[in-house]
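FORM 7B - TANDEM STRUCTURE REPORT

SECTION 1: FIRST PROTEIN
SEQUENCE AND C-ALPHA COORDINATES:
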Amino acid sequence: MICWPYPLLMNAFNNVNMAASCIITSVEFARELGIPEDKWIYPLGGAGMREKDNFWERTNFYSSEALEKSLDSALDVSGLKTEDIDLFDLYSCFPIVPKMAAHHLKIPFLDPPKPITLLGGLTSFGGAGNNYSLHAITEMTRQLRSKRTQANNHKDGRAFNGLILANGGVLTYQHVICLSTQPRSDGKTYQDGNPCPNVVQSVPGDFSDIVGSEGVGTGVWEGIIETYTVQFSRTNEPGIGFIVGRLKQTGQRFVANVGDEKTLRSLVKETGEEVIGKCGWVWKEENGTRNLFGFEKKANL
Protein backbone atom coordinates (compact mmCIF):
# COMPACT_ATOMS: atom_id res chain seq x y z
CA MET A 1 0.00 0.00 0.00
CA ILE A 2 1.30 3.47 -0.94
CA CYS A 3 -1.54 5.79 0.10
CA TRP A 4 -4.94 4.35 0.98
CA PRO A 5 -6.72 3.01 -1.03
CA TYR A 6 -4.03 2.71 -3.73
CA PRO A 7 -1.49 -0.15 -3.60
CA LEU A 8 1.66 -0.05 -5.72
CA LEU A 9 -0.10 -1.68 -8.68
CA MET A 10 -2.47 1.30 -8.93
CA ASN A 11 0.23 3.97 -8.84
CA ALA A 12 1.98 5.47 -11.84
CA PHE A 13 5.45 4.37 -12.96
CA ASN A 14 7.69 6.97 -14.55
CA ASN A 15 10.16 4.96 -16.59
CA VAL A 16 8.19 2.92 -19.09
CA ASN A 17 8.00 3.25 -22.89
CA MET A 18 8.93 6.87 -23.54
CA ALA A 19 8.86 7.00 -27.37
CA ALA A 20 5.88 7.87 -29.53
CA SER A 21 5.25 10.25 -32.42
CA CYS A 22 2.60 11.22 -34.94
CA ILE A 23 2.54 13.28 -38.13
CA ILE A 24 -0.06 16.04 -38.43
CA THR A 25 -0.46 17.74 -41.78
CA SER A 26 -3.00 19.03 -44.27
CA VAL A 27 -4.82 16.96 -46.90
CA GLU A 28 -2.97 18.83 -49.63
CA PHE A 29 0.47 18.17 -48.19
CA ALA A 30 -0.38 14.54 -47.40
CA ARG A 31 -1.21 14.06 -51.08
CA GLU A 32 2.00 15.85 -52.05
CA LEU A 33 3.97 13.48 -49.82
CA GLY A 34 2.25 10.49 -51.38
CA ILE A 35 0.74 9.20 -48.13
CA PRO A 36 -1.98 6.68 -49.07
CA GLU A 37 -5.45 7.92 -48.16
CA ASP A 38 -6.25 4.66 -46.36
CA LYS A 39 -3.66 5.75 -43.78
CA TRP A 40 -5.28 9.10 -43.08
CA ILE A 41 -6.97 9.65 -39.73
CA TYR A 42 -8.78 12.92 -39.15
CA PRO A 43 -8.72 14.93 -35.88
CA LEU A 44 -12.27 16.23 -35.58
CA GLY A 45 -12.07 18.34 -32.45
CA GLY A 46 -10.73 18.57 -28.94
CA ALA A 47 -10.95 20.35 -25.62
CA GLY A 48 -9.00 20.71 -22.41
CA MET A 49 -9.43 22.15 -18.95
CA ARG A 50 -7.86 21.92 -15.53
CA GLU A 51 -9.12 22.02 -11.99
CA LYS A 52 -7.86 24.58 -9.51
CA ASP A 53 -4.30 23.79 -8.48
CA ASN A 54 -5.19 23.86 -4.78
CA PHE A 55 -7.28 20.75 -4.27
CA TRP A 56 -8.98 22.24 -1.22
CA GLU A 57 -10.59 24.89 -3.46
CA ARG A 58 -12.55 22.29 -5.46
CA THR A 59 -16.31 22.11 -5.29
CA ASN A 60 -16.29 18.50 -4.12
CA PHE A 61 -14.12 15.38 -4.15
CA TYR A 62 -16.38 12.97 -6.00
CA SER A 63 -16.62 14.64 -9.42
CA SER A 64 -14.50 16.69 -11.80
CA GLU A 65 -15.93 19.65 -13.65
CA ALA A 66 -12.81 19.81 -15.84
CA LEU A 67 -13.24 16.18 -16.88
CA GLU A 68 -16.95 16.52 -17.61
CA LYS A 69 -16.68 19.79 -19.54
CA SER A 70 -13.68 18.56 -21.54
CA LEU A 71 -15.56 15.44 -22.62
CA ASP A 72 -18.77 17.31 -23.46
CA SER A 73 -16.99 20.12 -25.32
CA ALA A 74 -14.78 17.78 -27.35
CA LEU A 75 -17.79 15.76 -28.49
CA ASP A 76 -19.74 18.94 -29.26
CA VAL A 77 -17.05 20.62 -31.39
CA SER A 78 -16.47 17.29 -33.17
CA GLY A 79 -20.14 16.99 -34.09
CA LEU A 80 -20.41 13.65 -32.26
CA LYS A 81 -22.38 12.01 -29.49
CA THR A 82 -21.23 9.29 -27.13
CA GLU A 83 -23.03 6.64 -29.17
CA ASP A 84 -21.03 7.70 -32.27
CA ILE A 85 -17.75 6.66 -30.64
CA ASP A 86 -16.48 3.18 -31.56
CA LEU A 87 -13.31 3.15 -29.45
CA PHE A 88 -12.33 4.91 -26.23
CA ASP A 89 -9.05 5.27 -24.43
CA LEU A 90 -9.70 6.73 -20.99
CA TYR A 91 -6.35 6.99 -19.28
CA SER A 92 -6.31 5.91 -15.65
CA CYS A 93 -3.97 8.39 -14.00
CA PHE A 94 -5.66 6.82 -10.97
CA PRO A 95 -8.34 4.10 -11.22
CA ILE A 96 -11.08 6.57 -10.31
CA VAL A 97 -10.59 8.60 -13.51
CA PRO A 98 -11.95 6.15 -16.13
CA LYS A 99 -14.77 5.27 -13.73
CA MET A 100 -15.80 8.92 -13.50
CA ALA A 101 -15.47 9.39 -17.26
CA ALA A 102 -17.50 6.26 -18.03
CA HIS A 103 -20.14 7.33 -15.52
CA HIS A 104 -20.42 10.78 -17.11
CA LEU A 105 -20.64 9.28 -20.62
CA LYS A 106 -23.20 6.73 -19.35
CA ILE A 107 -20.99 3.79 -20.34
CA PRO A 108 -21.15 0.63 -18.18
CA PHE A 109 -17.74 0.45 -16.53
CA LEU A 110 -17.53 -3.23 -15.57
CA ASP A 111 -18.92 -4.62 -18.83
CA PRO A 112 -18.63 -1.88 -21.48
CA PRO A 113 -20.12 -2.60 -24.92
CA LYS A 114 -17.11 -0.91 -26.53
CA PRO A 115 -13.44 -0.82 -25.43
CA ILE A 116 -12.71 1.98 -22.94
CA THR A 117 -8.94 1.42 -23.05
CA LEU A 118 -6.73 0.37 -25.94
CA LEU A 119 -3.40 0.08 -24.13
CA GLY A 120 -4.59 -1.00 -20.70
CA GLY A 121 -4.14 2.30 -18.90
CA LEU A 122 -1.89 2.78 -15.92
CA THR A 123 -1.88 -0.84 -14.76
CA SER A 124 -0.70 -2.28 -18.08
CA PHE A 125 1.20 0.60 -19.62
CA GLY A 126 2.73 2.76 -16.93
CA GLY A 127 1.86 6.26 -15.98
CA ALA A 128 3.27 9.66 -15.11
CA GLY A 129 6.16 10.97 -17.18
CA ASN A 130 5.85 8.52 -20.08
CA ASN A 131 3.48 10.58 -22.22
CA TYR A 132 0.88 7.83 -22.17
CA SER A 133 -1.80 9.54 -24.21
CA LEU A 134 0.44 10.17 -27.23
CA HIS A 135 0.82 6.38 -27.27
CA ALA A 136 -2.98 6.21 -27.06
CA ILE A 137 -3.24 8.48 -30.10
CA THR A 138 -0.90 6.25 -32.11
CA GLU A 139 -2.74 3.08 -31.01
CA MET A 140 -6.11 4.69 -31.74
CA THR A 141 -4.81 5.57 -35.21
CA ARG A 142 -3.76 1.97 -35.84
CA GLN A 143 -7.06 0.53 -34.65
CA LEU A 144 -9.16 3.02 -36.62
CA ARG A 145 -7.17 2.18 -39.75
CA SER A 146 -7.82 -1.50 -39.09
CA LYS A 147 -11.57 -0.91 -38.68
CA ARG A 148 -11.66 1.03 -41.94
CA THR A 149 -9.86 -1.77 -43.78
CA GLN A 150 -12.27 -4.36 -42.40
CA ALA A 151 -15.25 -2.19 -43.32
CA ASN A 152 -13.96 -1.60 -46.86
CA ASN A 153 -13.62 -5.36 -47.31
CA HIS A 154 -17.32 -5.63 -46.52
CA LYS A 155 -18.28 -2.61 -48.66
CA ASP A 156 -19.13 -0.62 -45.51
CA GLY A 157 -18.28 3.04 -46.04
CA ARG A 158 -19.29 4.43 -42.67
CA ALA A 159 -16.96 6.46 -40.47
CA PHE A 160 -15.33 5.01 -37.36
CA ASN A 161 -14.61 7.36 -34.47
CA GLY A 162 -12.36 7.26 -31.44
CA LEU A 163 -12.16 9.38 -28.28
CA ILE A 164 -9.03 9.78 -26.15
CA LEU A 165 -9.07 11.23 -22.64
CA ALA A 166 -5.68 12.36 -21.35
CA ASN A 167 -5.33 13.39 -17.73
CA GLY A 168 -2.79 13.98 -15.02
CA GLY A 169 -2.15 15.32 -11.56
CA VAL A 170 -4.77 14.65 -8.89
CA LEU A 171 -7.70 14.72 -11.32
CA THR A 172 -6.14 18.05 -12.27
CA TYR A 173 -5.51 18.19 -16.02
CA GLN A 174 -7.99 16.90 -18.60
CA HIS A 175 -7.62 16.88 -22.39
CA VAL A 176 -9.86 15.14 -24.94
CA ILE A 177 -9.49 14.59 -28.68
CA CYS A 178 -11.79 12.86 -31.16
CA LEU A 179 -10.33 11.08 -34.20
CA SER A 180 -12.11 9.58 -37.20
CA THR A 181 -11.56 7.60 -40.38
CA GLN A 182 -13.44 10.30 -42.30
CA PRO A 183 -13.54 14.10 -42.25
CA ARG A 184 -16.62 15.76 -40.81
CA SER A 185 -19.71 15.37 -42.98
CA ASP A 186 -20.63 19.04 -42.40
CA GLY A 187 -17.35 20.20 -43.91
CA LYS A 188 -16.14 21.94 -40.75
CA THR A 189 -12.47 21.80 -39.84
CA TYR A 190 -10.76 21.45 -36.46
CA GLN A 191 -11.91 24.33 -34.28
CA ASP A 192 -9.85 27.44 -33.60
CA GLY A 193 -8.84 27.54 -29.95
CA ASN A 194 -9.99 25.68 -26.89
CA PRO A 195 -13.79 25.66 -26.38
CA CYS A 196 -13.28 25.42 -22.60
CA PRO A 197 -11.85 28.00 -20.20
CA ASN A 198 -8.37 27.01 -19.12
CA VAL A 199 -9.29 26.64 -15.45
CA VAL A 200 -12.52 25.71 -13.67
CA GLN A 201 -14.20 28.93 -12.58
CA SER A 202 -16.87 27.69 -10.18
CA VAL A 203 -16.39 27.43 -6.42
CA PRO A 204 -18.52 25.74 -3.74
CA GLY A 205 -21.58 27.79 -2.86
CA ASP A 206 -20.63 27.96 0.81
CA PHE A 207 -16.89 28.16 0.26
CA SER A 208 -15.73 31.44 1.70
CA ASP A 209 -12.65 30.52 3.68
CA ILE A 210 -10.35 27.68 4.58
CA VAL A 211 -8.80 26.97 7.92
CA GLY A 212 -5.13 26.92 6.98
CA SER A 213 -1.79 27.15 8.74
CA GLU A 214 -3.23 29.43 11.41
CA GLY A 215 -5.15 26.41 12.67
CA VAL A 216 -8.70 26.23 13.93
CA GLY A 217 -7.81 28.35 16.93
CA THR A 218 -8.61 27.48 20.51
CA GLY A 219 -11.06 24.82 21.50
CA VAL A 220 -12.26 21.67 19.81
CA TRP A 221 -14.54 21.88 16.77
CA GLU A 222 -16.86 19.29 15.31
CA GLY A 223 -16.08 18.50 11.68
CA ILE A 224 -17.35 16.26 8.88
CA ILE A 225 -14.97 14.26 6.67
CA GLU A 226 -15.22 15.10 2.95
CA THR A 227 -12.25 13.03 1.83
CA TYR A 228 -9.10 11.48 3.27
CA THR A 229 -6.06 9.30 2.66
CA VAL A 230 -3.43 7.50 4.72
CA GLN A 231 0.25 7.33 3.80
CA PHE A 232 1.84 3.95 4.51
CA SER A 233 5.37 3.21 5.68
CA ARG A 234 7.97 1.02 3.95
CA THR A 235 6.87 -1.79 6.25
CA ASN A 236 3.29 -1.42 4.96
CA GLU A 237 1.93 0.07 8.16
CA PRO A 238 -0.37 3.12 8.31
CA GLY A 239 1.90 6.11 8.90
CA ILE A 240 0.13 9.45 8.71
CA GLY A 241 -3.47 10.36 7.89
CA PHE A 242 -4.75 13.38 5.97
CA ILE A 243 -8.28 14.73 6.31
CA VAL A 244 -10.21 17.32 4.31
CA GLY A 245 -13.53 18.26 5.85
CA ARG A 246 -15.96 20.95 6.93
CA LEU A 247 -16.46 22.54 10.33
CA LYS A 248 -20.08 21.95 11.24
CA GLN A 249 -20.49 25.28 12.97
CA THR A 250 -19.10 27.58 10.27
CA GLY A 251 -19.06 25.48 7.09
CA GLN A 252 -15.36 26.31 6.60
CA ARG A 253 -13.24 23.69 4.92
CA PHE A 254 -10.28 22.44 6.94
CA VAL A 255 -7.22 20.32 6.28
CA ALA A 256 -5.85 18.23 9.14
CA ASN A 257 -3.61 15.33 10.06
CA VAL A 258 -4.98 12.43 12.03
CA GLY A 259 -4.40 12.86 15.74
CA ASP A 260 -4.56 9.30 17.13
CA GLU A 261 -3.92 5.65 16.29
CA LYS A 262 -7.54 4.54 16.64
CA THR A 263 -8.76 7.11 14.11
CA LEU A 264 -5.89 6.21 11.79
CA ARG A 265 -6.91 2.54 11.85
CA SER A 266 -10.52 3.51 11.19
CA LEU A 267 -9.50 5.27 7.99
CA VAL A 268 -7.95 2.13 6.53
CA LYS A 269 -11.15 0.16 7.03
CA GLU A 270 -10.03 -2.02 9.93
CA THR A 271 -13.52 -1.39 11.28
CA GLY A 272 -15.11 -2.11 7.89
CA GLU A 273 -16.92 1.25 7.95
CA GLU A 274 -16.66 4.01 5.33
CA VAL A 275 -15.81 7.26 7.10
CA ILE A 276 -16.67 9.85 4.44
CA GLY A 277 -19.52 11.88 5.91
CA LYS A 278 -18.65 10.80 9.43
CA CYS A 279 -18.24 13.41 12.18
CA GLY A 280 -15.21 13.85 14.40
CA TRP A 281 -13.28 16.56 16.20
CA VAL A 282 -10.72 19.10 15.01
CA TRP A 283 -8.26 21.05 17.13
CA LYS A 284 -4.99 22.91 16.73
CA GLU A 285 -1.84 21.02 17.67
CA GLU A 286 -0.26 22.39 20.83
CA ASN A 287 2.80 24.54 20.03
CA GLY A 288 2.30 23.83 16.34
CA THR A 289 0.53 25.02 13.21
CA ARG A 290 -1.22 21.79 12.23
CA ASN A 291 -4.85 20.95 12.66
CA LEU A 292 -5.44 17.49 14.09
CA PHE A 293 -8.52 15.32 13.64
CA GLY A 294 -9.85 12.43 15.70
CA PHE A 295 -13.08 10.59 16.31
CA GLU A 296 -12.46 11.15 20.02
CA LYS A 297 -11.87 14.62 21.45
CA LYS A 298 -8.18 15.59 21.58
CA ALA A 299 -6.85 12.06 21.31
CA ASN A 300 -3.09 11.70 20.99
CA LEU A 301 -1.16 9.85 18.31
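SECTION 2: SECOND PROTEIN
SEQUENCE AND C-ALPHA COORDINATES:
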Amino acid sequence: MTLPTRVLFVGNSFTYFHGLPTQLAVLARPERAVEVRAIATGGAHLAATWAGGEPTAALAEGWDYVVLQEQSCLGEGRYADGVPQVRDPADFHAAVRAIVPEVVAAGANPVLYLTAARRDTPAAQDLLNAAYTAIAGEVGATVAPVGPAWAAAQAERPGLRLHEPDDSHPAPAGSYLTACVFLSTLFGLDPRGRPGTITGPRVDPDAVPLGHGTLVDLPRADAAFLQRTARQATR
Protein backbone atom coordinates (compact mmCIF):
# COMPACT_ATOMS: atom_id res chain seq x y z
CA MET A 1 0.00 0.00 0.00
CA THR A 2 1.40 3.39 -1.03
CA LEU A 3 1.58 5.92 1.78
CA PRO A 4 0.08 9.37 1.16
CA THR A 5 2.32 12.31 0.42
CA ARG A 6 2.19 14.71 3.37
CA VAL A 7 2.38 18.49 2.88
CA LEU A 8 2.60 20.99 5.75
CA PHE A 9 1.80 24.63 4.93
CA VAL A 10 3.12 27.37 7.23
CA GLY A 11 1.87 30.86 6.39
CA ASN A 12 -1.10 33.17 6.80
CA SER A 13 -4.37 34.01 5.06
CA PHE A 14 -2.76 33.60 1.64
CA THR A 15 -2.46 29.94 2.64
CA TYR A 16 -5.89 29.31 4.13
CA PHE A 17 -8.17 31.47 1.93
CA HIS A 18 -10.56 29.25 -0.07
CA GLY A 19 -8.99 26.09 1.31
CA LEU A 20 -5.79 26.14 -0.71
CA PRO A 21 -4.28 23.01 0.93
CA THR A 22 -7.51 21.07 0.41
CA GLN A 23 -7.70 22.22 -3.20
CA LEU A 24 -4.21 20.81 -3.75
CA ALA A 25 -5.14 17.46 -2.21
CA VAL A 26 -8.27 17.17 -4.34
CA LEU A 27 -6.52 18.17 -7.57
CA ALA A 28 -3.83 15.52 -7.01
CA ARG A 29 -6.37 12.70 -7.25
CA PRO A 30 -6.31 10.01 -8.50
CA GLU A 31 -2.58 9.87 -9.21
CA ARG A 32 -1.51 10.77 -5.72
CA ALA A 33 -3.06 10.62 -2.26
CA VAL A 34 -2.11 13.78 -0.38
CA GLU A 35 -2.52 14.68 3.29
CA VAL A 36 -2.33 18.38 4.14
CA ARG A 37 -2.18 20.54 7.21
CA ALA A 38 -1.97 24.32 7.54
CA ILE A 39 -0.48 26.33 10.38
CA ALA A 40 -1.61 29.80 9.42
CA THR A 41 -2.83 32.97 11.12
CA GLY A 42 -4.11 36.03 9.29
CA GLY A 43 -1.40 38.65 8.72
CA ALA A 44 1.29 36.54 10.35
CA HIS A 45 4.98 36.85 9.55
CA LEU A 46 6.90 33.64 8.93
CA ALA A 47 9.41 34.23 11.74
CA ALA A 48 6.66 34.92 14.29
CA THR A 49 4.67 31.86 13.31
CA TRP A 50 7.75 29.68 13.59
CA ALA A 51 8.75 31.22 16.91
CA GLY A 52 5.34 30.25 18.29
CA GLY A 53 6.53 26.65 18.37
CA GLU A 54 3.68 24.91 16.56
CA PRO A 55 5.55 24.34 13.29
CA THR A 56 8.58 22.87 15.07
CA ALA A 57 6.33 20.50 17.00
CA ALA A 58 4.55 19.53 13.80
CA LEU A 59 7.80 18.57 12.09
CA ALA A 60 8.00 15.55 14.38
CA GLU A 61 4.86 14.16 12.72
CA GLY A 62 6.77 13.51 9.48
CA TRP A 63 6.19 15.48 6.27
CA ASP A 64 7.36 15.11 2.69
CA TYR A 65 7.11 18.85 1.98
CA VAL A 66 6.98 21.93 4.17
CA VAL A 67 5.69 25.02 2.37
CA LEU A 68 6.85 28.34 3.81
CA GLN A 69 4.92 31.54 3.04
CA GLU A 70 6.00 34.99 4.20
CA GLN A 71 3.73 37.99 4.76
CA SER A 72 2.74 39.28 1.33
CA CYS A 73 4.91 42.43 1.46
CA LEU A 74 7.73 40.67 3.34
CA GLY A 75 6.58 42.52 6.45
CA GLU A 76 4.65 45.64 7.35
CA GLY A 77 5.37 49.32 7.83
CA ARG A 78 6.28 50.52 4.34
CA TYR A 79 3.62 52.47 2.46
CA ALA A 80 3.28 54.77 -0.54
CA ASP A 81 0.09 56.83 -0.84
CA GLY A 82 -1.46 54.54 1.76
CA VAL A 83 -0.72 51.36 -0.20
CA PRO A 84 1.51 48.68 1.38
CA GLN A 85 4.87 48.25 -0.37
CA VAL A 86 7.32 45.34 -0.45
CA ARG A 87 9.96 45.70 2.26
CA ASP A 88 13.63 44.91 2.19
CA PRO A 89 13.90 41.11 2.29
CA ALA A 90 16.57 40.93 5.02
CA ASP A 91 14.19 39.76 7.78
CA PHE A 92 12.52 37.26 5.46
CA HIS A 93 15.87 35.87 4.39
CA ALA A 94 17.02 35.57 8.01
CA ALA A 95 13.86 33.62 8.86
CA VAL A 96 14.33 31.22 5.95
CA ARG A 97 17.98 30.66 6.86
CA ALA A 98 16.94 29.70 10.38
CA ILE A 99 13.95 27.54 9.42
CA VAL A 100 15.15 25.52 6.43
CA PRO A 101 17.82 23.55 8.35
CA GLU A 102 15.09 22.41 10.79
CA VAL A 103 12.90 21.32 7.91
CA VAL A 104 15.70 19.40 6.23
CA ALA A 105 16.78 17.78 9.50
CA ALA A 106 13.22 16.50 9.90
CA GLY A 107 13.46 14.78 6.51
CA ALA A 108 11.18 17.15 4.60
CA ASN A 109 11.68 19.14 1.42
CA PRO A 110 11.47 22.92 1.96
CA VAL A 111 9.33 24.83 -0.53
CA LEU A 112 8.97 28.61 -0.69
CA TYR A 113 5.53 29.92 -1.68
CA LEU A 114 6.40 32.88 -3.90
CA THR A 115 3.29 34.99 -3.44
CA ALA A 116 1.58 37.30 -5.90
CA ALA A 117 1.84 41.06 -5.73
CA ARG A 118 -1.10 43.22 -4.79
CA ARG A 119 -3.40 44.05 -7.69
CA ASP A 120 -2.67 47.76 -7.24
CA THR A 121 1.13 47.32 -7.21
CA PRO A 122 1.91 44.85 -10.02
CA ALA A 123 5.51 46.08 -10.37
CA ALA A 124 6.19 44.70 -6.89
CA GLN A 125 6.16 41.20 -8.38
CA ASP A 126 9.73 41.66 -9.60
CA LEU A 127 10.84 42.47 -6.04
CA LEU A 128 9.09 39.41 -4.64
CA ASN A 129 10.52 37.19 -7.37
CA ALA A 130 14.05 38.39 -6.60
CA ALA A 131 13.62 38.01 -2.84
CA TYR A 132 12.34 34.45 -3.03
CA THR A 133 14.63 33.13 -5.74
CA ALA A 134 17.74 34.57 -4.08
CA ILE A 135 17.15 32.90 -0.71
CA ALA A 136 15.90 29.68 -2.29
CA GLY A 137 19.15 29.39 -4.22
CA GLU A 138 21.15 30.05 -1.06
CA VAL A 139 19.44 27.44 1.12
CA GLY A 140 18.55 24.87 -1.53
CA ALA A 141 14.76 25.25 -1.34
CA THR A 142 12.27 24.79 -4.15
CA VAL A 143 10.27 27.82 -5.29
CA ALA A 144 6.58 27.49 -6.14
CA PRO A 145 6.20 30.34 -8.70
CA VAL A 146 2.71 31.44 -7.74
CA GLY A 147 3.35 35.14 -8.30
CA PRO A 148 4.76 34.71 -11.80
CA ALA A 149 1.78 32.51 -12.71
CA TRP A 150 -0.62 35.19 -11.48
CA ALA A 151 1.24 37.86 -13.45
CA ALA A 152 1.01 35.77 -16.61
CA ALA A 153 -2.71 35.15 -16.08
CA GLN A 154 -3.43 38.83 -15.46
CA ALA A 155 -1.45 39.88 -18.53
CA GLU A 156 -3.44 37.53 -20.76
CA ARG A 157 -6.85 37.93 -19.13
CA PRO A 158 -6.97 41.14 -17.07
CA GLY A 159 -10.72 40.77 -16.60
CA LEU A 160 -10.41 37.51 -14.69
CA ARG A 161 -10.40 38.48 -11.02
CA LEU A 162 -7.67 36.70 -9.08
CA HIS A 163 -7.72 39.09 -6.09
CA GLU A 164 -10.46 39.77 -3.59
CA PRO A 165 -11.83 43.35 -3.61
CA ASP A 166 -9.13 44.37 -1.12
CA ASP A 167 -6.60 43.96 -3.99
CA SER A 168 -4.47 41.77 -1.74
CA HIS A 169 -5.97 38.41 -0.81
CA PRO A 170 -6.68 35.66 -3.33
CA ALA A 171 -10.18 35.33 -4.74
CA PRO A 172 -11.39 31.77 -5.43
CA ALA A 173 -9.85 31.82 -8.92
CA GLY A 174 -6.56 33.04 -7.44
CA SER A 175 -6.43 30.27 -4.85
CA TYR A 176 -7.27 27.76 -7.57
CA LEU A 177 -4.41 28.99 -9.77
CA THR A 178 -2.13 28.77 -6.72
CA ALA A 179 -3.20 25.18 -6.06
CA CYS A 180 -2.49 24.28 -9.68
CA VAL A 181 1.01 25.79 -9.38
CA PHE A 182 1.69 23.67 -6.30
CA LEU A 183 0.32 20.57 -8.02
CA SER A 184 2.85 20.97 -10.81
CA THR A 185 5.74 22.18 -8.62
CA LEU A 186 5.53 19.54 -5.91
CA PHE A 187 4.37 16.49 -7.80
CA GLY A 188 5.09 17.19 -11.46
CA LEU A 189 1.42 16.58 -12.24
CA ASP A 190 -0.22 18.36 -15.16
CA PRO A 191 -3.12 20.51 -13.89
CA ARG A 192 -4.88 20.44 -17.25
CA GLY A 193 -8.16 18.55 -17.39
CA ARG A 194 -8.77 18.56 -13.64
CA PRO A 195 -11.98 19.67 -11.95
CA GLY A 196 -12.80 23.34 -11.55
CA THR A 197 -15.26 22.76 -8.71
CA ILE A 198 -13.87 21.67 -5.34
CA THR A 199 -15.58 21.22 -1.99
CA GLY A 200 -14.09 20.88 1.46
CA PRO A 201 -13.77 22.49 4.90
CA ARG A 202 -14.35 26.24 4.69
CA VAL A 203 -13.14 29.06 6.93
CA ASP A 204 -13.93 32.76 7.06
CA PRO A 205 -11.27 35.48 6.52
CA ASP A 206 -10.24 35.13 10.18
CA ALA A 207 -9.86 31.33 9.84
CA VAL A 208 -13.05 30.60 11.82
CA PRO A 209 -14.50 27.27 10.59
CA LEU A 210 -17.68 27.50 8.50
CA GLY A 211 -18.28 23.81 7.85
CA HIS A 212 -18.08 21.82 4.63
CA GLY A 213 -19.00 23.56 1.40
CA THR A 214 -17.80 24.85 -1.97
CA LEU A 215 -14.26 26.19 -2.02
CA VAL A 216 -14.16 27.08 -5.69
CA ASP A 217 -16.61 26.71 -8.57
CA LEU A 218 -15.17 27.99 -11.84
CA PRO A 219 -16.59 28.03 -15.36
CA ARG A 220 -14.92 25.34 -17.42
CA ALA A 221 -13.12 27.84 -19.66
CA ASP A 222 -11.70 29.75 -16.68
CA ALA A 223 -10.49 26.57 -14.98
CA ALA A 224 -8.83 25.39 -18.19
CA PHE A 225 -7.10 28.75 -18.65
CA LEU A 226 -5.75 28.73 -15.08
CA GLN A 227 -4.61 25.12 -15.40
CA ARG A 228 -2.72 25.93 -18.58
CA THR A 229 -1.18 29.05 -17.06
CA ALA A 230 0.05 27.12 -14.02
CA ARG A 231 1.56 24.44 -16.22
CA GLN A 232 3.42 26.98 -18.34
CA ALA A 233 4.73 28.82 -15.25
CA THR A 234 6.23 25.65 -13.79
CA ARG A 235 7.86 24.11 -16.85
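SECTION 3: OBSERVATIONS ON SECOND PROTEIN
The chain has one domain: 5-233.
The first strand starts at residue 5 and ends at 11.

SECTION 4: SIGNATURE
Preparer initials: ____
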